[in-house]
TrEMBL record:
GO terms for biological process: endonucleolytic cleavage in 5'-ETS of tricistronic rRNA transcript (SSU-rRNA, 5.8S rRNA, LSU-rRNA); endonucleolytic cleavage in ITS1 to separate SSU-rRNA from 5.8S rRNA and LSU-rRNA from tricistronic rRNA transcript (SSU-rRNA, 5.8S rRNA, LSU-rRNA); endonucleolytic cleavage to generate mature 5'-end of SSU-rRNA from (SSU-rRNA, 5.8S rRNA, LSU-rRNA); small-subunit processome assembly. The keyword Cytoplasm does not apply. Belongs to the ESF2/ABP1 family. It comes from the Eukaryota. Keywords: Nucleus, RNA-binding. GO terms for cellular component: nucleolus. The keyword Repeat does not apply. It comes from Fistulina hepatica ATCC 64428. Its main location: nucleus. This is 18S rRNA factor 2. Residues 1-24, 191-226 are annotated as: Disordered.
Length: 226
């Protein structure tokens, strides 16, 4: 399937072959019967929301674990915030992507509801020594929630994030412009102050008009005495 706007391809794990709507070869128009069957299949689906993804668990692993309970359609895990990911990669040795939350689509909403009730707050388990054997699932069934709603939600969040980013960049450019303007103003004022100090220094060593008159008067009296 095509990746919807705003969805990270790395967070997607595609549909089960028996549940997929894509086929190899040219795409043929759906007959009314096939369209009705597809719509009915979509109406039967159910989505489970996982509010916390154990560290290091990837979409394919979530899909594998959930497939033990029923036919799984699509799986999507949301990666952590880019800023947080940058700091984690900078200050830790873990470089792989981390996921914070996820959605799992089951072909049967009854199964989805049962899986959420069965696994929520329960240990993930697995073989002894497994990485997540002591970790705990945190999930819930989303009534009347369909996959198309998720893609719309993700697209809206991506658009909102892009808008916030543009606003932050605009503010940053404005602050930078203001800073450079203040730096230039300070430089001009410093030059003016330096020129003013030079003039004051010259005036200290340059005789004033009154001083020159006194000197001339004194010289005249000295000549008369001689």
């Amino acid at each position: 399937d095509d990746v919807p706007d705003g969805m990270d391809p790395a967070g997607l794990a595609g549909s089960d072959p028996a549940f997929s709507t894509t086929h190899a070869g040219p795409v043929k128009p759906l007959t009314p019967e096939a369209l009705a069957a597809f719509s009915a299949a979509q109406a039967r689906t159910g989505v489970v929301y996982i509010s916390r993804i154990p560290p290091g668990m990837r979409p394919a692993k979530v899909r594998h674990l959930m497939s033990a309970y029923g036919t799984v359609g699509r799986v999507y895990l949301q990666q952590e915030d880019p800023r947080r990911a940058y700091l984690r990669r900078k200050h830790t040795s873990t470089k792989k992507a981390h996921y914070t939350e996820g959605w799992v689509e089951f072909a049967d909403k009854t199964v989805a509801r049962r899986v959420a009730a069965l696994l929520n707050a329960q240990p993930i388990g697995g073989k002894k020594g497994s990485r997540w054997v002591d970790d705990v699932w945190t999930m819930k069934y989303l009534p009347r929630f369909k996959w198309s709603m998720l893609t719309e939600q993700v697209a809206q969040e991506a658009a909102a994030h892009a808008a916030r980013l543009r606003a932050e960049l605009a503010q940053s450019r404005s602050e930078q412009h203001s800073y450079l303007k203040n730096v230039e103003l300070a430089r001009v004022l410093e030059k003016r102050r330096a020129r003013g100090e030079d003039k004051n220094a010259d005036s200290e060593f340059k005789p004033s008009d009154e001083s020159r008159r006194r000197d001339r008067s004194s010289n005249g009296r000295n000549v008369e005495k001689e």
